[in-house]
Amino acid sequence: MEIVAAAALGKFIGAGLAAIGSGAAAIGVGNVAGNFLAGALRNPSAAGSQTATLFIGLAFAEALGIFAFLVALLLMFAV
Amino acid sequence: MAGEAHEGGGLVFHPLDQFKIHPLFGELKPGEALAWYTPTNATLWMALAAICIVLLFVFGTRGRAIIPTRIQSVAELIYGFIYKMVEDVAGHDGVKYFPYIFTLFLFILFVNYLGLIPGSFTPTTHIAVTAVLGFGVFIAVTLLGFYKHGAHFLGLFWMKDSPLILRPVIAVIEVISYFVRPVSHSIRLAGNIMAGHAVMKVFAAFAPMILLSGIGIVVTPISVLAIAAIYGLEFLVAGIQAYVFTILTCVYLKDALHPGH
Known about the structure:
The complex is a heterodimer.
Chain A (H helix, E strand, L loop, with lengths): L1 H17 L1 H23 L1 H4 L3 H28 L1
Chain B lengths: L1 H7 L32 H19 L10 H21 L7 H18 L11 H23 L17 H40 L9 H42 L4
Helix pairs in contact in B: 2-4, 3-4, 3-7, 4-7, 5-6, 5-7, 6-7
């Protein structure tokens, strides 16, 4: 019985730790968007052609945060 | 999974209940599995998305007017937007594969937006659905690369610009990142949409707390406002994720068409 309780406890702690990854992804996404804006304000004429690159960068940064979310979900419901 | 929340007495319903797949007609008996041919809510909403696309693009543009009607101009705007993106990202010879990319974009866009209707179901929250799309792109692009360039396609992993000593290391990293592509491609879409819908339902479960406790007078207005805000964000995310999925498809297509760059 204690082992089951410890496993459940570990599950919740692990899911909570995995949620830190979302915060890390938020830093990454903020970095991408902030640097894009800083560059775009320096040279607005070149900004329009780079929005596709912006979204690709955002997507890659965000994907890793989603992986963290997935780990949390797996811990909560699959393990 | 569903029962826990009800027993706990906290949330009124489980935020992940909305992702359950159930047959459209009749109920599953306990222990009975879904057959592959059973029409489910996922089937229904994917079919509705297909019908909406046909309505917009086949019947909306039927008039072929020089001065477009409102519906026709919406269809033309979407068409032109994706066409330009394929041309910009995948290059001029990527335009040949525009129908495939446009189909992917429309399907994801319409499924995402139909899923935002309260009470509906979003098939793109299921990794099973997005994995078919993601791995489909991966297999198509890989086959295309080998068909077009033969063994030269492997030059994608062998960086000619880097120093010779580093090349094997980079090749290993490139191969790993190439095979992670379909996984991240599909999980990004499913994860984003699923997370957004789950957050909405978490706040929605806070809202009826006014019935349960005194603290609800504070919690209910905040959570209703939060649902509205998150809904606005989700509206944005639904479009952006369809766009991101499509633009990454274009990037992968470009890699297959021009592996040396």
